[in-house]
Write a structure and sequence with these properties.
The chain is built from one helix and twelve strands, in the order αββββββββββββ. The chain is mostly beta strands. β2 and β3 form a beta hairpin. The chain is globular, with a radius of gyration of 18 Å.
Length: about 230
């Protein structure tokens, strides 16, 4: 338990020291370091960002499958609503998750994430590498993501960024698990409640859902983000 509180203290200090290292809204899925053998999945995510009097909306659609027992590759297309309320393609992504340790093998479970993104119709590229951490204590789980991001291209200033995400979850029942989430990047620190669940079927088939409402802590104007995700594994 002392190790868990020590880890929490380090991560919380990182959240606030990292504010000058990254920009943009960093709210998204908090990743877990686990991969199942022969896993396949389809996923949908929605992100609605209300800042002041403006609202932006983005959706992601993905298909992924494990290529090794501990490596998962996922392909995304991203759509966003523009200022004229038209919804169109905005980006493509390829994501790889690598499970470094077996669940319960060590004091905590570890994984890594690698992502490559290309903005549609713009010369903007982005590559991300990240460390995934999860620790179970009783009926609770602490998940932490730390990402290093590099952006480049003719339509953007080349820069290195950092992002941090954390989730502290209470595993009440599989179908309903409340949590608190933290996000950090330059010009943005957010916190809020989240809820998630999983319904298992035959074999590896299972349906996962998540919803979170994150409030920005820095800034004078209203800054709220709603995130929703549904994932079917088979």
């Amino acid at each position: 338990m002392k190790k868990l509180f020590y880890t929490l203290a380090i991560i919380l200090s990182c959240f606030y020291s990292a504010q000058t290292l990254a920009d943009g809204v960093v709210v998204d899925k908090v990743y877990h370091p686990y991969v199942l053998p022969n896993e396949k999945e389809v996923e949908w995510r929605l992100l609605s960002h209300q800042k002041g009097n403006t609202n932006s909306l983005a959706q992601r659609f993905a298909y992924g499958q494990s290529i090794f027992d501990n490596v998962m590759v996922e392909f995304y297309i991203v759509g966003e609503r523009d200022v004229d309320d038209n919804f169109s393609l905005s980006a493509y992504e390829v994501e790889t998750r690598w499970m470094l340790t077996e669940q319960g093998e060590y004091w905590a479970d570890w994984g890594m994430l690698f992502e490559f993104e290309k903005i549609h119709n713009k010369d903007i590229w982005e590559v991300t590498s990240g460390l995934l951490f999860e620790k179970e204590v009783g009926r609770t789980s602490l998940s932490i993501n730390a990402f290093l991001i590099y952006e480049w291209g003719n339509d953007i200033e080349n820069e290195m960024e950092m992002e941090f995400r954390a989730q502290y979850r209470y595993r009440w029942i599989p179908q309903f698990q409340p949590a608190i989430e933290l996000y950090s990047g330059e010009d943005y620190v957010g916190i809020g409640p989240a809820f998630m669940g999983i319904q298992r079927f035959d074999g590896q088939k299972q349906l996962k859902w998540e919803a979170g409402f994150i409030t920005g802590l820095n800034g004078k104007s209203k800054d709220h983000i709603l995130r929703v995700a549904i994932e079917y594994e088979f």
